Fold this sequence. Notes:
This protein folds into two domains: about 35-215, 3-Layer(aba) Sandwich (Rossmann fold), CATH 3.40.50; about 225-325, Helicase, Ruva Protein, domain 3, CATH 1.10.8.80. The chain is built from 14 helices and eleven strands. It has helices at about 1-15, 20-30, 35-45, 60-70, 90, 125-140, 175, 190-200, 215-225, 230-245, 265-280, 290-300, 310, 315-325, and strands spanning about 50-55, 75-80, 95-100, 105-110, 115-120, 140-145, 145-150, 155-160, 180-185, 260, 305.
Amino acid sequence: MNETVDIKELNDRIEKESSFVDMIKMEMGKVIVGQKHLVDSLLIGLLSDGHILLEGVPGLAKTLAINTLSNVVKADFSRIQFTPDLLPADLVGTMIYSQKKEEFQVKKGPVFTNFVLADEINRSPAKVQSALLEAMQERQVTIGETTYQLPRPFLVMATQNPIEQEGTYPLPEAQVDRFMLKVVVDYPKFEEEKLIVRQNIAKEFPKATAILSPENIINARNVVKDVYIDEKIERYILDIVFATRFPEKYGLEKFAPMINYGGSPRASINLAMASKAFAFIKRRGYVIPEDVRAVSHDVLRHRIGLSYEAEAENITSEDIITEILNTIEVP
């Protein structure tokens, strides 16, 4: 009985603490038409301190979305266009000799900001990608002999274009694992696109107002950690991840030859964290199975290694995740 009272109390507290979520969505809705899934994913990344990899054809408001979010949160934003000739120093910064002071001085790179948009991350060579991925993982950058902490909150949203693969450097699987979510952005619906065209040909393009500070986000992250996750839900999360590793144990023998490797423990951690953040966005103090199902595709799609057999049979990681969610018993 005591637990039920605590849950009720927690639920009330989280409902109060999460009131800003609707305000963020409203402000972003002024600029971004439709794309609800993209906005939700950005909020999940922001609230659970995770980075996001976006895949979609050009012109789907990927840059606009993160720019708008940084305006709403009143945070610093930098956009880095990844090109084949980019160097790690262009990203993290370097030592520059000052003739006036007769000494080397540190010039910090564009990664020292709250929101980083790494545009077309697969256009630059591996050493540049790994420089960004180190900053993402460690939340710090080493220039010369000194290590500098990155500002908080620190969110990287990397985009990659699925259509042109010539002259690109695909992210290695081990590095893709650093992204909490991989979100596939789709075309807007007919009515939404009509609104987008109207907005863009109007005299003034709508602007989002700043309603939060970075400190508010850091406080909200601590509240998200308080969202209650039952042991049954934890087992459900682990079952989903383990089914990507050992499909035969879950009655999914047909997938055994199609999966080279499944989700790492990072997948389980991120699935639990994203579920908590999703419950928070829905203004609930506890996680339900629907929250886990809602974030499973984004958390797992880049963490399943497919074999040649899967590619030959045209089976994608999406198909495997959907089948796993349909097979595993919901608590």
